[in-house]
Amino acid sequence: MPNLHASLQRRYSYKNYNWTQHIDECENGTVCPSGICFNEPGGHSCGSCPDGFVGQGGHCMDIDECHDERVCIRGLCLNTEGSFLCQCGPGFRLSSTGDQCDDVDECQEEMAPCQALGECVNNMGSYTCTCPGGYRQIDGTSCIDVDECLEETELCSPHGTCLNTKGSYLCVCDTGFTASLDAPSCDDIDECGLNETRCGPHGYCENRLGSFQCLCDQGYQESQDGQACEGECSMY
């Protein structure tokens, strides 16, 4: 026959035992937005919010760093969860700290950006080419030769022909003319001034446009080449 006293004692013990099961809330990764959870008897507490967030314990809000005008200088700021990104445009690169865009010095880093003709001048986000005389800037980044003969059709006229050269031009003058030192044209050559005795002892040299003429003394005539005066008898 069962021991009635022992059975009653067990039932009384079960009834008065305090059944308590502790729950670890930190096992649920969503209870603390900060990601730092401290399990405590009967509850939990949250640590400080991580970088890029603001708030206390279980209430963390993302900081929009793009509202700070000092962030992403010379670039486009894109806010992300807990941080931000800087997008840099052409002529800029992301700084080593990742919080701004630095200018790229194309004049130092690129191989002859202005080719061999121009001088490279760096500026913020780009560069320009300073071209020498006789060259024209194209899109600010290169230099091309100016064809003066094509653009200024009156050059060297009316007694010469314009010949374009790299960075300049030349006047190819007609016979009896020479390139002017003062203007883009051809000047008459004063053959008589260069040689007063050009027509010999029996003639007078008279300069003409592009040439000259020998005015001969009486009894003399101009030679067949027009360069001197000869006696009339010697002409036959």
Structure overview:
- This is EGF-like domain-containing protein.
- It comes from Xenotaenia resolanae.
- Keywords: Disulfide bond, EGF-like domain, Repeat.
- Pfam families: EGF_CA (PF07645).
- InterPro entries: ECM_structural_protein, EGF, EGF-like_Ca-bd_dom, EGF-type_Asp/Asn_hydroxyl_site, EGF_Ca-bd_CS, Growth_fac_rcpt_cys_sf, NOTCH1_EGF-like.
- This protein is mostly beta strands.
- It folds into 4 domains: about 50-105, Laminin (Ribbon); about 105-145, Laminin; about 150-180, Laminin; about 190-235, Laminin (Ribbon).
- The protein is built from 4 helices and 20 strands.
- The strands form 10 sheets. Strands 1-2 form a two-stranded antiparallel ribbon. Strands 3-4 form a two-stranded antiparallel sheet. It has a two-stranded antiparallel ribbon with strand order 5-6.
- Strand 17 (about 205-210) and strand 18 (about 210-215) form a beta hairpin.
- The longest helix has 13 residues, at about 5-15.
- The chain is rod-shaped and about 150 Å long.
List the helices and strands and how they pair.
Layout lengths: L3 H13 L20 E4 L2 E4 L6 E4 L2 E4 L12 E6 L2 E6 L3 E3 L6 E3 L2 H4 L9 E5 L2 E5 L4 E4 L3 E4 L2 H4 L8 E6 L2 E6 L3 E3 L6 E3 L2 H4 L8 E6 L2 E6 L3 E3 L6 E3 L5
Antiparallel strand pairs: 1-2, 3-4, 5-6, 7-8, 9-10, 11-12, 13-14, 15-16, 17-18, 19-20
CATH topology of the largest domain: Laminin
The CATH architecture term of the largest domain is Ribbon
Number of strand segments: 20
Q: In percent terms, what proportion of residues is strand?
A: 35-45%
The portion of residues assigned to helices is 10-25%
Radius of gyration: 50 Å
Major sheet description: 2 strands, antiparallel
The structural class is mainly beta
Number of alpha- plus pi-helical segments: 4
Strand order of the largest sheet: 1-2
CATH class of the largest domain: Mainly Beta
CATH superfamily of the largest domain: Laminin
Number of domains: 4
Mean pLDDT across all amino acids: 84
SSE run: HEEEEEEEEHEEEEHEEEEHEEEE
Q: Quote the distance from N terminus to C terminus.
A: 181 Å
Shape: rod-shaped
Low-confidence stretches: 4-17
Pfam families: EGF_CA (PF07645)
Protein name: EGF-like domain-containing protein
Domain EGF-like: 62-102, 103-144, 145-187, 188-230
Keywords: Disulfide bond, EGF-like domain, Repeat
